[in-house]
Here is the input.
Amino acid sequence: MIDFGNFYKLIAQKRPTNDLSSWLEILPTQLANWKKQNLDSRFNHWVNSIAHLPEINQPIEVDLTNGVTVKTETPISVGAQQRIEKLLKNLIPWRKGPFDLHGVVIDSEWRSDLKWQRLLPYIDDLYGKTVLDVGCNSGYHLWRMVGAGARLAVGIDPMALFLCQFEMVRKLLGGDQRAHLLPLGIEALPKLNAFDVVFSMGVLYHRRSPLDHLYQLKDQLVSGGQLVLETLVIEGDLHQALLPQDRYAQMRNVYFIPSVPTMISWLERCGFKKR
Here is the structure.
């Protein structure tokens, strides 16, 4: 079973800034309720896949700066590699990636590495920072945030499959505790004002109320923190936004796609300021 005890210990440590300890008043109950609702055969199958990963009994080399890659000085056996590949396939589909895990490459549906490279020049220095990734999927970007120096990278996404994918990658990376994924939506978070940088990437256009989403993101930031918002936009003037009637770019549940001036006005309305 997936356990959140290490995360509880981390956030129980009160800090002058980035104090997440108040979250413990509701978080254990929220996660316990989530577990009760997700105890089904698929979830158990995914958790068992994590448990059956082969033990790597030699030092590992992890690269989170240029990608999400782990290997050993001496390549692991072909049998162990095949076993890892088979267990990773139990958790298909892998949408965010790619990952290179002991020579087994997850060729994900989306090239999240390319998105990260595009955004990196605009992101504050993450060294020693506490960061939040909303709608993190498999957690690919959490590991890249750690690779960029984040002290703690927290991802939230309510899908059970994504939690299991993240925990499988964590185990293959040697159990790194600098990143954690919680199976919650942004609406479940109290007003924490504890994250130096909050990421919302590919989420806003799936929200029925984009302004509510922006307010929720702001509630998680420390004073002077940075919001990294990546979303679809259209060409147009102020107050223009597209509301697709059906699918958009083959995606369901796409609601508002604003023009850049409209996006800026939304952010200003919610209290964000340009630096």
User: Anything to note?
Assistant: DSSP finds nine helices and 13 strands in the chain. The first helix runs from residue 5 to 12. The chain has a mean pLDDT of 95. The radius of gyration is 19 Å.
